[in-house]
Protein 1
Amino acid sequence: MEFRYLGNSGFKVSEITFGNWLTHGSQVENDVATQCVRAALDAGISTFDTADVYANTAAETVLGEALKGERRESLEIFTKVFGPTGPKGKNDLGLSRKHIMESINGSLRRLQTDYVDLYQAHRYDFETPLEETMQAFADIVRQGKALYIGVSEWTADQLRAGHALSKELGFQLISNQPQYNMLWRVIEAEVVPASEELGVSQIVWSPMGQGVLSGKYLPGQPAPEGSRATDDKGGAKMIQRWMRDDVLAGVQELKPVAAEAGLTMPQLAVAWALQNPNVASAIVGASRPEQIADSVAAAGVKLESEVLKRIDDAIGALAERDPAKTTSPATREG
């Protein structure tokens, strides 16, 4: 495993982050989830990402149990706040001071830790003044409940405004967690340049395009039984935008590229995301422990310029690049 600095800080994270969005507390049994975490640790992953909204807080509980007994100082534990939790009442969501202050305490309890290394605003909250949100984050940092603050899926303008407030309030905003892969490149035009200017890194999710970039989905053929594309609880709706024959045919053209580079298709996808110098880490998940080793092999891989060109020739024209696609819900309930 290799490690990179997160933003303009002295804080290092593993190039591969283990995330438990679609699996822990919902799709897989807790003992299998624990096996996946153990496999991640054995593979050298030290960075773990979750959120209170995943499986309505159950994912945090599973991760906390799985990491129990590990040396806390050797881990980087991330979680997020924004989405509805608990009974989903009027103040059980968003980035108000009330919800943030209550949510960090719940997350720490479930994760069985005194602090998280990175606490992230899961989306931008248009219904709460940004000053209120950032003041709550500043207080959490001063209380020692979070060491650093990050955001997820914020636009370039939102990052600039949040970063300016964080400096005024005396804490560091060091990361953004966007979707990023060969097919979804919306951060490249505006978010990445702004982030480089501000000293903010990307921790990217879905580097394998919800599994499409694995090459297992073939044009003109039904999705394999048991795959994510057939699982309503596992992201089938999100994957549908890429289940087009032109996209799937383009992805198939990557198979010889991966083979010649000595990589599997998933490894090629993760390695591609890590070629962006503004990307500090790529989040991968697993429903089986053996999946971890394949993803981890992408760490430290340097793709030659000719390989990157062949990837662009195969699917670059199919990629979504519109920066306006970086969005947060207009309302908390949205």
Note: Residues 118 and 148 are 5 Å apart (CA to CA).
Protein 2
Amino acid sequence: MKRKMDTTTYYVQTMPGVEEIAWLEIRNKLPGAKFGETVFAKDQNGLLIFSYAGDVADLFQLRTVEDVYVLALSVDKVARTRGVLPQITELVRDTAVFQHAIDTAWPIRMQQPARPSYRVISRLYGSHDLYRKQLGEAVERGMKARYPKWRLVDDHAQVEIWINLLGSRLVGGIRLTDRTTRHRFNKPVELKAALRPSVAAAMIHLTQPEDGDIFLDPMCGSGTLLMERRYAGAYDQMLGADIVYSHGRATLKNVEALRKEPPTNFQVLHADAAKLPIAAGSVSKVATNLPFGKQIGSPKALKKLYPAFFGELERVLGENGRAIVLSSEYDLVKESVRKCPKLEILTGYSVAVLGQWGRIYILRRN
């Protein structure tokens, strides 16, 4: 539903570390958006707060995020004791900010003309003299006072209220999105250790997609990066490759299942990423998730793979070509790139993937 809004404060929830990349996407897709701040829910999520005066429906085009919320509660510093609970109840019961959040979310979340329902999800990180359940109950008391006719339910609520007490920082919001934002792909073939779609979208955004791209994922697995590249817009050619034949077949099925019409100029190669059947200098953009940590058993295998891969990356990338590579093997990445005089690491972003911290590297071929 399209609705024109006054300037409203929102926040997005991301995978840890992706919030900086999410801001790049927000700035690109939501003209006039103003950065607020980032806060962190330990190793679980990042939260990025921003304001935007455009249509609330515009926020649903964001792909680097896990969920989108309209900000309903925000206090920079609160007590870490039970004394915060009456304060939370009062904020829910009385403030205009909370009412504005409900008014913003209601037209989007309303599914049927029934008696309104809500549920509360509470999260508590840090040392506190209270329990997570008490945090949620404080919100419920405010809701009962403000909306006495609304129903409190355990699931399938029309309105979801999230309350986060992160140390002494209080952030709460009304969820605008649903589970399909996080689980956006119905893959015909699922493989273990596949990238989260939002992380894949962050990597694709960093490639700076253009209509003339010849894009390659040389270790495509189940094809999540290729699926996100197809969503990112037009390209000249899109290639995937994987040394495991069944992975290539999985990628083909998954990418083709995205839409009714088949992808154009798309091919999946059964090939080793260290020895690709691709002409030198023929690729303009690369994004890939390198094996790291528990994904591969032998450190010796990594030490053999990484230098060979980056050497091949240097060969296939054209001049000023851009590559986005995810790995937690920091020293091995830097050591391998140093052996490739035409490759340069521009910058990177530390992110958490499958419970392990890694880094998204941005490289350019000179």
Note: The mean pLDDT is 93.
